[in-house]
């Protein structure tokens, strides 16, 4: 996985979002937060834009802590957005956690980021496997 990995789905935004949530769940991720970028831009700047949603996802395997204390070691942003260049396409993309973590926190953090990266790639590959109209973007 390079800087990011993405796929293009030939479907509606609602269906792409549903399928992304399903693929995340099938690969052990839980969505912890959503940011509706379209709504935020519209409210703050009164400018319309294509649908754009960020899902914050974490994998429980990479959460540490003891009784009552939980530390998220890595939260991933999964972007689901309408392709402004092609009607009927939706792009789903994730950043490589190894790039985001920078590897500066030592080998343990780098190893965790690598494992999460593999799981995120499985999310994208799961989306691609379900649709003949899917294009995997380089990454």
How is this structure best described in words?
InterPro entries: DUF302, TT1751-like_sf. The chain has 139 residues and is an alpha+beta fold. It has one domain (4-137): TT1751-like domain (TATA-Binding Protein), CATH 3.30.310. The chain has 4 helices and 8 strands. The chain has helices spanning 13-26, 37-45, 97-101, 107-129, and strands spanning 4-10, 30-36, 52-58, 63-66, 69-72, 76-82, 89-95, 135-137. The strands form 2 sheets. It has a 6-stranded antiparallel β-sheet with strand order 2-3-6-7-1-8. A two-stranded antiparallel ribbon has the order 4-5. Strand 4 (63-66) and strand 5 form a beta hairpin. Helix 1 packs across helix 4 (107-129). Mean pLDDT is 82; it is low at 66-70.
H-E order: EHEHEEEEEHHE
State the shape.
globular
- Overall pLDDT, averaged? 82
CATH architecture, by name, is: 2-Layer Sandwich
Instruction: Bin the helical content.
Output: 25-40%
Gist of the model:
The protein is an alpha+beta fold and 139 residues long. The protein has one domain: TATA-Binding Protein (2-Layer Sandwich). It has helices spanning 13-26, 37-45, 97-101, 107-129; strands at 4-10, 30-36, 52-58, 63-66, 69-72, 76-82, 89-95, 135-137.
Descriptive keywords:
single chain; alpha+beta; TATA-Binding Protein; 6-stranded antiparallel β-sheet; two-stranded antiparallel sheet
């Amino acid at each position: 996985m390079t800087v990011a990995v993405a796929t293009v789905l030939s479907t509606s935004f609602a269906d792409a979002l549903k399928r992304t949530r399903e693929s995340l769940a099938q690969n052990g991720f839980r969505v912890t937060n959503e940011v509706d970028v379209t709504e935020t831009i519209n409210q703050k700047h009164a400018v319309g834009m294509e649908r754009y949603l960020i899902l914050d996802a974490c994998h429980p395997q990479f959460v540490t802590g003891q009784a009552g204390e939980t530390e998220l070691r890595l939260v991933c942003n999964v972007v689901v957005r309408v392709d402004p260049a092609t009607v009927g396409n939706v792009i789903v993309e994730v950043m490589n956690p190894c790039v985001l973590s920078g590897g500066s926190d030592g080998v343990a953090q780098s190893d965790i980021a690598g494992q999460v990266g593999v799981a995120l790639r499985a999310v994208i590959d799961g989306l691609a496997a379900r649709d003949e109209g899917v294009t995997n973007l380089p990454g």
